[in-house]
Amino acid sequence: MGTRISGLASGMDVDTLVKDLMKAERMPVDKLFQKKKLIEFQRDDYREMNKHLKELDTFIFEGISRQSSFLKKTSTSSNEAVITGVANGQGGTQKVTFDSVSLATSRSWIGSEVTIPDTRESSKLSTLVHTLPEKVMLTLNKPSGEHTSLALLIDPEKESIASFMQKISQSELGVSAFYDESTKKVAMMSKETGQGFSLHTTDEKTEALFKKLGFSMTASELIGSVESKDGKDAAFSVNGLAMTRSSNVFSIGGLTVTLKNNTTTPVTVTTSNDTNSVFDTIVNFVERYNQTIDKVNKKIAEPRFRDFAPLTDEQRKGLSEKEAQQWDEKAKSGMLQRDSLLANGLATLRTNLYKTVQHSERDFQQLTSIGIQTTSNYLEKGKLVIDRDKLRQAIEKSPEAVMKLFTNNSTVDGEKGIAQVMRQTIATTIQQVEAKAGNVLRTNQQFVLGKQLNDMDSRMKAFTERLKEVESRYYKQFTAMEKAVQRSNQQSVYLSQQFSNGR
């Protein structure tokens, strides 16, 4: 670019003149900028609607599309201080009576009194055994045939009886251990209940240590004193059938049972359908569906303010922050007004909700049969309303039929559950919207509005380059004018001087 002479000769504000001239020249670029912003607004609104649809799809998937949501059970015990039961959903409604309950107990190993020398170091293991093992080797054999082994590192000079017992308890051996200073005895107990646990040492030094801790041994098996007891399996009868279990917590007939106390008095655990949970699952679905279609309906009914084009940077400078915010709200409004993709998606969803699901029970093959229908108020545009009493009665009468209405899995259209059909419709709508507006993982070249944005960028770039040339031309023209004015001024001064000299 050549040298610019900005009004020195003519006295004109050339920079301002060029700036004003460029405003007119820049108008087509501003129009392109505004069109680009409108496309971006539309893209963002599409993606926001897709976000709501995906959230609805996830809600359906985690709720009414799962059979487990309809198979929940509740259980009550006639004496919860003795027995409690939690239904796991695998069994039907039932009454189970437990009688003659005897709890499972753990295997215990109790040593005889430990003879400790009367020294200041009396708590140290080294006072009991002159040559301590660096590793204590123990194995716990279980009734199941499994076993766990322990190789416990100890410091012979520092390890106390109490700290040694604590390390055993904290290990993965499966045994709790402690030293009682009042009785001077070591006590150990299997963490699991049941009959048939045994504890073994696997080297001579470990055996010698436990003998000093008051335990007798039989062929490397830890026996203990006469206070030691073998564990017992839980014993009880269920509806008259005698049973045993190694644990006080077990499953039977779709019920997870916890035995808490011995008893000779019968205790009944009753399992029934969890009507409240199923009811809440369906009500929550209806509420989420209504929230979603309300957001989409409001978006496609939003008014369009065509007189409020997106603000350019120059226009924004002339407004206050509040004025710019209000302008932006109107400029962004109505980007999806009467949008066919979303309107068709909602219409198909409404059709899905009217459909008949052909399954085993004819009385529960439509939503209306369980008390759910669309509102009669046309202004609410297809929202669902619930007859709560009718819904609860349907769940209590036939929970399996209500479940099939929503979850029936089939490749035949007329037999597909409402959840399956709705998820297919939502997936199709989301795919169509993404083809037009993309998502965060797609490049502009992979969706319709993105290609339009790329085209706008290319046109704006080309026009911007042209504007630079126009601006340069204006400055050249003004510079030429300034030079001409300067020459004219110089000639005028020369002539004036000549006339003055000729007097």
UniProtKB/TrEMBL annotation:
It is found in: Secreted; Bacterial flagellum. The keyword Ribonucleoprotein does not apply. Pfam families: FliD_C (PF07195), FliD_N (PF02465). This is Flagellar hook-associated protein 2. Coiled coil: none annotated. Required for morphogenesis and for the elongation of the flagellar filament by facilitating polymerization of the flagellin monomers at the tip of growing filament. Forms a capping structure, which prevents flagellin subunits (transported through the central channel of the flagellum) from leaking out without polymerization at the distal end. Residues 10-106 form the Flagellar hook-associated protein 2 N-terminal domain. Residues 311-332 are annotated as: Disordered. Residues 231-489 form the Flagellar hook-associated protein 2 C-terminal domain. Keywords: Bacterial flagellum, Cell projection, Cilium, Coiled coil, Flagellum, Secreted. Belongs to the FliD family. One of its GO terms (biological process) is cell adhesion. GO terms for cellular component: bacterial-type flagellum filament cap; bacterial-type flagellum hook; extracellular region. Homopentamer. PANTHER family: FLAGELLAR CAP/ASSEMBLY PROTEIN FLID, FLAGELLAR HOOK-ASSOCIATED PROTEIN 2. The gene is fliD. The keyword Methyltransferase does not apply.
